[in-house]
Design a protein that fits this description.
Alpha-Beta Plaits, two-stranded antiparallel sheet, alpha+beta, single chain, 5 strands, 3 helices, about 110 residues
């Protein structure tokens, strides 16, 4: 199993989770973070660090976010997504988008 970043991260990109990851499995894109399923060791230390509750264990994903498992895996392989190992400021849009839902159309691949 792996952990999955859900739509809640889109347009926010808080990186608190990155600092605690022991295996550097997060990848950063223009407006989203993803977890590389081949690197994730299922330790769960990232889950409580996310201020928008965007990270779930794969088996605990809400039904309306199941599609994010495949999206995380695809983006982890994308050349547009690179490994991130240190905390960065969230996107300037984070406060405006942190409580919005249905953000998938905004995802930049």
């Amino acid at each position: 199993m792996t952990h999955v970043v859900t739509e809640a991260c889109i347009q926010c990109k808080y990186t608190d989770c990155v600092d605690v990851c022991p295996v550097d499995c997060f990848k950063e894109g223009p407006n989203f973070l993803t977890i590389d399923p081949d690197e994730c060791i299922d330790c769960a230390v990232c889950i409580p660090e996310c201020p928008v509750n965007a990270i779930y264990a794969e088996e605990d994903l809400p039904k309306d976010q199941l599609h994010m498992t495949e999206i995380n895996a695809d983006l982890a392989r994308s050349p547009n997504y690179t490994t991130i190992t240190k905390h960065k400021d969230p996107l300037p849009t984070a406060e405006d988008y942190k409580d919005r839902t249905d953000k998938l159309p905004l995802l930049e691949r």
